[in-house]
Each structure stands twice: as structure tokens, then as C-alpha cells.
Amino acid sequence: MDTYDIMLYVSYGLAILGAALSIILPLLKSLDDPKGLVKSAVGIIGLVVLFFIAYSISGNEVAPKYEGAPFNLTPGMSQTIGGLLIATYALSLITILSIVVSELFKASK
Questions:
Q1: Is 83 exposed, middle or buried (0-12, 13-18, 19+ CB in 10 A)?
Q2: Which spans are transmembrane here (predicted)?
Q3: Same domain for 39 and 13?
Q4: 54: buried, middle or exposed (CB in 10 Å: 19+, 13-18, 0-12)?
Q5: Can you give the pLDDT of all 109 residues of the chain as single tens digits?
Q6: Is residue 27 domain-shared with residue 39, that is, in the same domain?
Q7: What is the pTM of this model?
Q8: Residue 48 belongs to what domain range?
């Protein structure tokens, strides 16, 4: 095992630690203010609903060259990837529109 492998595993560990702490610490802080938990829950539920809508409208077609090795893509995997892509596109569009609307409101004041 050379240095690159060790650093790769260290970066995996740090990414997992950062993700865990970014979830756990706000939950501990929001125990003081339960209304903050409700806002977070509404946001998470909204993301889940958006993903399931995107998942349900995405197709599950797989091109023949991706069915075999090395990809081994199944229709379920294809539909999940399509759902994630559609959700990403929708969130990007919502973000851009909110930036434009925010700037228009600031300019009108």
C-alpha cells in the first residue's frame, strides 16, 4: 500500500466524517428550537417528493452496449440515474429562477 492509497482512504474517512457531522450537529443544535426541525423536515420531504416525481417520469431504457460488461446497467439503475438527473435539472432551474427573482426584487427597492 503506497502513499496514494493511504491518502485516498484518509480522504474517504474525512468526507464521511464531514457528512456525518453536517447532519448530526445541526440536529443537536435544533433541539433547542423545535420550529427549526419542522423547517428542516419540510425541506427534506420536499426533496424526497421531487426525487420521486423525477423518478416516476424518467425512462428505464438501456442501450445494448451498456447492458454487458463493464457497465452492467439494469433498467432500475437507468431509471434511478434518470430520476437523479431530472431532479438535478429541476433544482438547478429553481436556483437560477430564485436568483433572478431575488435580484429583480432588490433592484425594485
A1: buried
A2: 6-28, 40-57, 77-101
A3: no
A4: buried
A5: 788 889 999 999 999 999 999 989 888 888 888 777 788 789 889 999 999 999 999 999 998 888 888 888 899 999 999 999 999 999 999 999 999 999 999 999 8
A6: no
A7: 0.71
A8: 33-108
